[in-house]
Structures are given as C-alpha cells and as structure tokens.
Amino acid sequence: MKTNLVYFAWVRERIGKTEEEIELPEAVVTVGDLLIHLRGLGEEYETALQYPDVIRVAINQEHVEHDEKIAGAREIGIFPPMTGG
Amino acid sequence: MSTPSPTIRVQAHDFDLQVEVDALTGGRTDIGAVVSFVGLCRGEQGKLSALELEHYPGMAETEMRRIADLAIERFSLIGATAIHRHGRIEPGENIVLVIATAPHRQAAFDGANFIMDYLKTSAPFWKKEHAADGTAGNWVEAKDADDTAKDKWR
User: Taking the alpha carbons of B124, B52, B128, B109 in that order, is the dihedral positive or negative?
Assistant: First the structure.
C-alpha cells in the first residue's frame, strides 16, 4: 500500500523533501515502526529522525501517538513539536 | 439553542481586532464580556529581523476548530474566533488573535486562555527565526512551560 508522507519545519529541511509517496513494507505496523523504517532510508532521514521521542505524527491530519497503527492512513504528517501562537 | 460555531482562519495577511470583535458582538444583546488576545512578533532587542511561520494546511484549521469547539463547550461561550497568520512576520506585527465572548467575564477570560494554551501546543504551526545579522535561521524550540500551561486545564 502506498502512503503519502508530508514533512514540516526542521524535519522537512533535514529530509530535504516536502512530501513523498512511499510503499510501506508489511512489517511496518505502527507509527513507531514507520519512524524506524524511515531512518533506514538514508543519512538525511537518520539525521531528521534521530530523536524519535520528540517527533510528532499525524494520521489523516489528526495527532496520534507512536503506538498508533497506520493501516488505512492516506496521509501521514511528520514534524517537530509545534511552536505557533 | 444550537452550539455556536467558531470563526477560524489561517491567513498570510494581517487581521483587524475591532472588525473581528464587531463580527462577534454585532446585533446581539446577550454578550456581557469580550476577551481578546493578540500575539505579536518580538524584535528580541534588535536581534530578530523576522519570523517565518510554517503551517500544515488543512490540519491547522481543523485543529484550531477542534480547540475552539472544546472551549465553547467547556465554558459555555457565546462565540469564539481564532486567526493565525503564516508566512513572514516582522517585529511589531500581529501573529495570532483569539477572541472569546460570554455572558460573564470569567468564562470569556478562561475561554480565551484555554484556546491559546491548546493552540500553542496542538495546532501545527512552526516558527523559524531570521536574525538581523543575516545568519541562517533557527527553528524556535518548543517550551516545556507551554505544555505545563496546557496541562492545567486537565
């Protein structure tokens, strides 16, 4: 299944892409699994996601925890803690 | 009585506080209190030339609406508005506006405070600083104090 990933702020800058569509292996079940999988894709991903505890994730534009299952996700947003307001 | 629907906008251009207050109060006689908060860009003693506000289009509006709906429900607000700017914002310019209206002042104060506390930690916006000396920008770091501020509403 192909999933659209969108990146923001320093996660976007470090990965060097705004968004991409990727094919996820079946072993990638949760958000946590996804972050580990992405870190294996290259140095830029490793740099962006080296501290997974601070990374925030949204599935279909709703905040989720790292133990959330990603089955059925059309869009997964990956970004640092928010600093608006 | 139907639940009020908040006014939510994410925009590059500035907002007008009085226009937004009038939009909430115009033609009504049930409002006894209006509390507004405007967040501005600080110049940091001349060290900052601008902030660049990035957001997650779609999710930013959805999350702001969710937060405002929670505040309306919790504090029985008559109305609420939340407007957040994006793009390049210079010192002295407006960044964010929150307005809460209610029959009495406590609900309006609490409603506006609640919306701001949640907006800072849950609405997908990120600030990048551009230094006055032209050096590369730093992303503003999230503050633990903002999480603590939000947690007081639990």
Answer: negative
